[in-house]
Amino acid sequence: MILNRLKRTACAAGALCLTGLVALAAHAANPDALWQIVSQKCVPAAETGAGQNACAYVDMRGGYALLKDINGVAQYLLIPTRRVSGIESPALLDADAPNYWPDAWHARSYVEQKLDVPLRRDEVGLAINSASGRTQNQLHIHIDCMRPDVADALAAQRGTLDAAWRTLPVALEGHRYRARVIDEATLERDDPFKALAADIASRGEAMGDQTLLVTGTTLADGQPGFIVLNDRVDGLDRASSEELLDHDCTIARRH
């Protein structure tokens, strides 16, 4: 199980997490900062079995690292351990490309641990921004709390959604997102990157202009599932679904 692989490692000591945060802050204006932290600090430490690691967790077999972001009280980033520029990378569509989304979803336990509060499925979101809506040129999935108003808006629309893409009748942060619902097995089996690429191919759109967000929900039959959101670059809309996350995690106060 993926969850069993998420062992609590480096961040057990607060000073180790601070190492990663300081490094990220020092390179805040550097678009390769995340890649440099993962490739030059996290992976070498994991390979040598060093007692300290700038990342919270490194899964060499799964090909990703988890890093506490300097932004937010509990935000983590899932970052591939190989060079992958972002959502536009053709490598994500390779037949043997890792599906990072299930690992990112299970990594929400790190957010909960940081908050010391259990979160409901619909209170957690995974987001990746478009090529023009990001600051870092290494793929990274944001793992954080959902904005309370967005979580409530999606809950209100849940009964109208199914497996087909539909434009939401309400704007989220002023933008018109498309949404669809999938179950847990679908997230494990069908990589959202590949599913989106297949859908937009007929629309003549580019992957680099897309943004994706995955948040938990409960399906009509009571089973756990997900709402997948998609937006694309359009004028002043830079397609950054990170805007639907709340890096202050105010939704945790509901508990």
From TrEMBL:
Enzyme class: hydrolase
Entry's localization field: Cell membrane
MF terms (GO), sorted A to Z: CDP-diacylglycerol diphosphatase activity
BP GO annotations: CDP-diacylglycerol catabolic process; phospholipid biosynthetic process
Family membership: Belongs to the Cdh family.
Endpoints of the signal sequence: 1-28
Membrane protein topology class: Single-pass membrane protein
Assigned keywords, A-Z: Cell membrane, Hydrolase, Lipid biosynthesis, Lipid metabolism, Membrane, Phospholipid biosynthesis, Phospholipid metabolism, Signal, Transmembrane, Transmembrane helix
GO cellular-component term (any): plasma membrane
Reactions this protein catalyses: a CDP-1,2-diacyl-sn-glycerol + H2O = a 1,2-diacyl-sn-glycero-3-phosphate + CMP + 2 H(+)
Species name: Pararobbsia silviterrae
Top-rank taxon: Bacteria
EC number per UniProt: 3.6.1.26
Stated name of the protein: CDP-diacylglycerol pyrophosphatase
InterPro entries, per database record: CDP-diacylglyc_Pase (IPR003763), HIT-like_sf (IPR036265)
Keyword Transferase: no
